[in-house]
Specification:
The protein is α/β, with parallel strands linked by helices. The protein folds into 2 domains: 245 residues, no CATH class; 202 residues, Rossmann fold, CATH 3.40.50.11350. It contains 15 helices and 16 strands. The strands form 5 sheets. A 6-stranded mixed β-sheet has the order 9-8-7-10-11-12, with helices on both faces. A 4-stranded parallel β-sheet has the order 4-3-6-5. A two-stranded antiparallel ribbon has the order 1-2. Strand 10, helix 15 and strand 11 form a beta-alpha-beta unit. The protein is globular and about 85 Å long. The model has no long low-confidence stretch (mean pLDDT 93). The structure holds guanosine-5'-diphosphate. Guanosine-5'-diphosphate binds next to helix 4, helix 14 and helix 15. May be involved in cell wall biosynthesis. GO terms for molecular function: galactoside 2-alpha-L-fucosyltransferase activity. Keywords: Cell wall biogenesis/degradation, Glycoprotein, Glycosyltransferase, Golgi apparatus, Transferase. It is an enzyme of class 2 (transferase).
Length: 475
């Protein structure tokens, strides 16, 4: 009854190859069904094991989610502090923390951890989580109720918090098996004790705690692949290791209708008709006000060298082109408008040597990060999503914003190296080994031998990242 091809195969009723449950109401989240019309089909298929684990997770979530009988019971125990019989329902509460790209990556990490440990994931709604993302699980919400008893303590949870697993270990190294909740501090400033989260021995004691409250700004999945207790299950879930975020992302993150409006209107107005779509994600971490000439030089050097954009013909006497030339749409994202204006002007002022017609577009220039503002985050989410709809993508080093786009899109980006000393690096960029995000602050610890170890050199599928030499990524 509507014009969009649905993600549902009518014969089998499968949504995204069975990745998504078929139990949703379509109108409440249009993107879940309409996105297939905007994306190329994924080159990858989810494993049947992943699909069956997602369905059993959804069933668990339905039994244990907010305000179910089991939920109410475990919440009572949390208040009374009594440790009575073991409940079927144990939880990971994900705390809203950091920029939107970071939040998307950490939420995927927390979900996979929940899946591996048979826990239920509940999401601290922060300022705008409910405004940005559709509910990913059918029937029962993933949002933590605002009357959750210890919600008022969330703001105090940090590296120094006495409730953190690391600090608890410092006081009591044998662990405390009767805790009702534990705070897992997995943010960039976590210390050696907090990092023991990634050791199997510690998981054994963490497993007994019904409520885990997790705060992180890191995509920590690569380190889960180095833990013997999770290794086999992870291999079964993801036979192709570089598809972890690709599938978890497409499973979990569906823009709400207002955000989908931003995405679909922009796509149809500026991108849909082009023969090829190129994404350029520009994130500059240098201090000072851009635009910087060295960043512009680097963008052009990379795009031309890798033949993502055509050279220009600087001869003045080239006249008009015949109609019906090939068109390329370049989608740029940046907090700053300067790079976009320069690239757009170059292709307006000069013809291309190939005759291609280049349109350059940038949805917004918000000038600076405004994580607490609704419209700002809606636009950021829309732009990550739009980048994921391009055919070829250039990203900036260290940026989780870019990681989200590449993972959702199933794209191996060209990564712009981080400029040093205000000069464009040479070479300007390189192709990524895989579409996976980088874990920026991984542990370097051998849990068995209790010594330091290079965790990027232990197995072939967990390597150091292209854009951060100490980071880890799946390949
Ligand atoms: P990261 O800092 O690049 O890893 O990405 P995050 O998404 O975690 O944090 C950066 C935040 O700055 C984003 O969430 C946006 O709020 C804002 N931001 C950065 N780059 C852009 C951009 O190109 N477009 C928009 N709309 N916002 C951006």
């Amino acid at each position: 009854e509507d014009d969009f091809p649905m993600a549902v195969d009518v014969l089998t009723d499968k949504v995204l190859d069975g990745l998504l449950s078929s139990e949703f109401d379509k109108s409440s989240c249009l993107s879940r069904y309409q996105s297939v019309a905007y994306r190329k089909e994924s080159a990858h298929k989810p494993s049947s094991h992943l699909i069956s684990r997602l369905r059993s997770y959804e069933a668990l979530h339905r039994r244990c989610g907010p305000y179910t009988q089991s939920y109410n019971k475990t919440v009572e125990k949390l208040i009374s502090g009594q440790h009575t019989e073991i409940s079927e329902c144990n939880y990971v509460v994900w705390l809203s923390f950091s920029g939107l790209g970071n939040r998307i990556l950490t939420l995927a990490s927390a979900f996979l951890y929940a899946l591996l440990t048979n826990r239920v994931l509940l999401v601290d709604r922060g300022v705008d989580m409910a405004d940005l993302f559709c509910e990913p699980f059918p029937k029962v919400s993933w949002l933590l109720p605002s009357d959750f008893p210890i919600a008022n303590q969330f703001n105090n949870f940090d590296q120094k918090s006495p409730h953190s697993y690391g600090n608890m270990l410092k006081r009591n190294p044998v662990g405390n098996s009767t805790l009702q909740f534990s705070y897992l501090h997995l943010a960039h400033d976590y210390d050696d004790q907090d990092k023991l989260f990634f050791c199997d021995q510690d998981q054994t004691s963490i497993q007994k705690v019904p409520w885990l409250i997790m705060k992180t700004d890191n995509y920590f999945i690569p380190s889960l692949f180095l833990m013997p207790s999770f290794e086999q299950e992870l291999t079964n879930l993801f036979p192709e290791k570089e598809t972890v975020f690709h599938f978890l992302g497409r499973y979990l993150f569906h823009p709400t209708n207002p955000v989908w409006g931003l995405i679909s209107r922009y796509y149809q107005a500026y991108l849909a008709k082009a023969d090829e779509k190129i994404g350029l994600q520009i994130r500059v971490f240098d201090t000072g006000n851009g635009p910087f000439q060295y960043v512009l030089d680097q963008i052009l050097a990379c795009s031309l060298k890798e033949k993502l954009l055509p050279e220009i013909n600087q001869n003045e006497d080239v006249g008009s082109l015949p109609l019906n030339q090939k068109t390329k749409a370049v989608l740029m994202t940046s907090l700053n408008a300067g790079y976009f204006e320069r690239v757009r002007d170059i292709y307006w002022e000069f013809p291309t040597v190939t005759g291609e017609v280049i349109g350059v577009y940038q949805p917004s220039h918000e000038e600076y990060q405004q994580t607490e503002k609704h419209v700002h985050n809606r636009k950021a989410w829309a732009e990550m999503y739009l980048l994921s709809l391009t055919d070829k993508l250039v990203t900036s080093s260290w940026s989780t914003f870019g990681y989200v786009a590449q993972g959702l899109g199933g794209l191996k980006p060209w990564i712009l190296y981080k400029p040093e000393n205000q000069t464009a690096p040479d070479p300007p960029c390189r192709r990524a080994m895989s579409m996976e995000p980088c874990f920026h602050a991984p542990p370097f610890y051998d849990c068995k031998r209790k010594t330091g170890v290079d965790t990027g050199a232990l197995v072939p599928h967990v390597r150091h990242c292209e854009d951060m030499s100490w980071g880890l990524k799946l390949v």
